[in-house]
Fold this sequence. Notes:
Blueprint: E1 2-6, H1 11-22, E2 26-31, H2 38-48, E3 52-56, H3 62-71, E4 76-79, H4 86-91, H5 93-113, E5 118-124, H6 147-165, E6 170-176, E7 178-180, H7 199-207, E8 214-217, E9 229-230, E10 232-234, H8 235-249, E11 255-260, E12 266-267, H9 268-279, E13 285-288, E14 297-298, H10 303-309, H11 317-330
Parallel strand pairs: 1-2, 1-4, 2-3, 4-5, 5-6, 6-11, 7-10, 8-13, 9-14
Antiparallel strand pairs: 9-12
Helix pairs in contact: 1-2, 1-8, 3-5, 5-6, 7-9, 7-11, 9-11
Amino acid sequence: MKILVTGGAGYIxxxxxxxxxxxxxxxxxxxxxxxxxxxxxxxxxxxSGKKVDFYKADIRDREALRKVFTExxxxxxxxxxxxxxxxxxxxxxxxxYDNNIYGILVLIEVMRxxxxxxxxxxxxxxxxxxxxxxxxxxxFPLSTSNPYGSxxxxxxxxxxxxxxxxxxxxxxxxxxxxxxxxxPSGKIGEDPNGIPNNLCPYITKVCVGKLPFVNIFGDDxxxxxxxxxxxxxxVEDLAEGHVLAVKKLEEKPGLFIVNLGTGVGYSVLxxxxxxxxxxxxxxxxxxxxxxxxxxxxxxxxxxxxxEFIGFKAKRxxxxxxxxxxxxxxxxxxGYVE
Length: 337
């Protein structure tokens, strides 16, 4: 079977492509390389020993997508393509709506044109907004606190309406929590452009001396130590969840939604301390004001994912920090082409 992975050169996409190849799938990758690098695709091929058919294209480019579907018989699509930073989305909401929502619309239209009706969509725990309690189950009320989350939620509405209009579609909506870590080889990992927006790559940049200290945004949240609490999941576990979702689509299950998380919440300070342990010395940090769009606490109830697609996160916080640090120590400047 042949899987199209949009945004496959990115952090989660590259790890997922390796898992797909290891499970016997053929992989076609589309990425515009706006927040990723071609070397990641080469590393995927190096690690897996298998070829990836790569197209440099924006999924909003209808003709570029039509070329991909004309040249390959695609069985399922995994859509990672999209902007993904909460803080940036507050500063650039229109760009986020255009890229994320228009992109999925073009992708769906081309899929329909070529009769491809299996889709895995990478949604986010941000669709739960500021949850009324934790852990979070899939039937929680939905709301958002930032434009990034809004794009994910609107796309979920689009996909639900698409399925109602055509139940030949099989759609997996994966609401995942906070991916961190890297491939244990140290050859691929998270490499954002510029100063990282997410906590883990920021910490690892501090660990290798590329940044002076970790900025902690707020220590007055209603949490045990005052800093925000999140459900951090190893990117390798997350990638395996996507393979399980693709396999589930082969059973023609219709539309389903699952949380991909560990069920455990760690605070920002706990994460800094965990990286200090992995590094063997203290990671410096400073407390600053809260960041727009952030919420106090968010972690999953992952039980339905285990029941429905057989997903259960296996890797520990120590594994996550070790692998993330290993990637950054091996690649202090990220991917260098």
